[in-house]
Amino acid sequence: MSYNTALRTYGSKRIEEIESADIMVGIPCYNNEKTIEHVIQMITHGLARHYHDKRSVIFIADGGSTDDTREVAKEFQLKPWQEKVVTIYRGPAGKGTALRSVFEAASRLKIKACAVVDSDLRSITPDWVKHLLDPVIDKGYQFVAPVYVRHKYDGTITNNIVYNLTRALYGKRIRQPIGGDFALSNDVVKFYIEQDVWETDVARFGIDIWMTTNVVTHNFKICQSNLGVKIHDAKDPAQHLGPMFRQVIWTIFYLMEEYEYYWKNVRGSESLETFGFQDSMEPEAATTNLERIIDSFKIGFQQFSALWKDIFTEESFRHIENSSKLDATNFHLSTDAWVRILYELAATFHAWKINRHKLVDLMTPLYYGRVASFVRQTWEMSSQEAEEVVEDQAVKFENHKDYLIRLWDEKTIDVC
After folding, report:
1. Backbone angles phi, psi at 24, to 5 degrees
2. d(C-alpha 416, C-alpha 49), whole Å
3. 269 and 303 share a domain?
4. In this predicted model, what pLDDT tens digit does every residue of 174-206 receive, in sequence order?
5. How far is CA 96 from the centre of its chain?
6. Handedness of CA 207, 210, 216, 217 (dihedral sign)
7. I want to staple 240 with a disulfide (CB 3.0 to 4.6 A). Which of 68, 168, 235, 283 is the partner?
């Protein structure tokens, strides 16, 4: 069913009562009763410390939590001069609709700057508010992407896929293109609201990468802000990240078709101005089960190898097949092979006009194979040393971009 707003009647009335504000901080949430109070507390302290002279609103966009998330949020007392709205958003379930409600509220309040932070953060500090909002308020940036100090095995989808493809395709070294904590100006808020995306699968499953890709391709002024260590409800890639891989990779490939005119003309990449936290530290360890990840890859090979042989080039399939014969001690799927695999997959997605979701499903075990190889390669490294491996990988994606374009064009001819 089509709908024209993600704000329910209560949320709209509260926005009318507040009338206008300088700053808004949105918190999309769902079943986060254990962490939501800490997040709100850090935000209210940050707003009081750094923006005492600004009218501020904290907007909690809940997805219909079945625990006490909303009750905890409602009971927490803000500073007297701050406003709080706690509401269930209206529309399809998912983060996209939560963000739509945040952006609609921000637009109605005519805010100058809006920040959004995740509701499961345990490492957020009052200074996060300043690090996110200052570049918009004081320096004229229109979108602020986060940079985190993360454990080497927290963020495997970003490290092995999203950072590489975003950088190689669109030419910006945005380290966290699907980071849950960001800031934006009023004109970007309005731009997002006007896009015809909010009732699609992209909004449900890939809203973060959609936002990042759109600010790049529409030439908004972008920077990054280092927020320091990110500690949240991390997920073991062996257990939890398969569905997320499928959602993110599908959205990236979908956007590649929409913005083909843009990325085909981009070569190399440029760094972004980065503000915020300066010191380095080793983050809290993220657990991972190497044997289980390798088993997931090998089971996938047994199930899908005949299909993979048809989809990939002979050279890429040979790398996959060789990796399937290795045990945990020697497991390896090289970066060069991984670059070719992802680029061949993107071109195949472009050629397939039906059953695309099934194609992406077939690829999930290959993601596990690459993660297992990354884990083995960086096992003895600090997270800072592992970051150099990630950077080296990103350069290889850039260097092989002509291979992607050649395959893409060949598949286009085949389709025609």
Report:
1. -135, 140
2. 60
3. no
4. 999 999 999 999 999 999 999 999 999 899 889
5. 12
6. negative
7. 235
Q: What DSSP line would sit under 125-188, residue for residue?
A: -HHHHHHHHHHHHTT--SEEEEEEE--TTS-HHIIIIIHHHHHHHH-B--S-TT-S-EEEEHHH
Domain housing 336? 290-415
In a domain, 4, yes or no: no
- Taking the C-alpha atoms of residue 165 and residue 333, their distance in angstroms, rounded to an integer, is 18
If asked whether residues 318 and 270 sit together in one domain, one would say no
> How many other C-beta atoms are found inside a 10 Å radius of the C-beta of residue 127?
17
Q: Hunting for tokens 């289980």 — which residue is that?
A: 292
Structure-block tokens of residue 392: 């080296």
Per-residue pLDDT tens over the stretch 8-41: 999 999 999 999 999 999 999 999 999 999 999 9
Q: Which of 254, 276, 298 is the C-terminal boundary of a domain?
A: 276
Token pair recorded at residue 59? 């907007």
State phi, psi for 240 to the nearest 5 degrees: -115, -15
- Are both 148 and 272 inside the same structural domain? yes
Q: Residue 142 and residue 66: Cα distance in Å, rounded?
A: 35
Rounded to whole angstroms, the Cα distance separating 257 from 125 reads: 39
Identify the domain boundary among 276, 301, 330.
276
Are residues 33 and 154 located together in one domain of the fold? Answer: yes
* 196 and 64 within one domain: yes
Distance CA(142)–CA(223), nearest Å, equals 8
What does 220-283 look like in DSSP terms, one character per residue? --EEEEEEEE--S----TTTT-HHHHHHHHHHHHHHHHHTHHHHTT--S-B---EEE-----PP
DSSP letter string over 350-386?
Answer: HH--S-HHHHHHHHHHHHHHHHHHHHHHTTTS-HHHH
Q: Is residue 181 in some structural domain?
A: yes
Ranges 44-48, 149-153, 330-334: which has the least confidence: 149-153
Q: What tens digit of pLDDT does each residue of 206-252 get?
A: 999 999 999 999 999 999 999 998 887 655 555 556 788 889 999 99
Residue 13, in any domain of the structure:
yes
In sequence order, what DSSP letters do the residues of 27-43 get, joined into one string?
EEESS-TTTHHHHHHHH
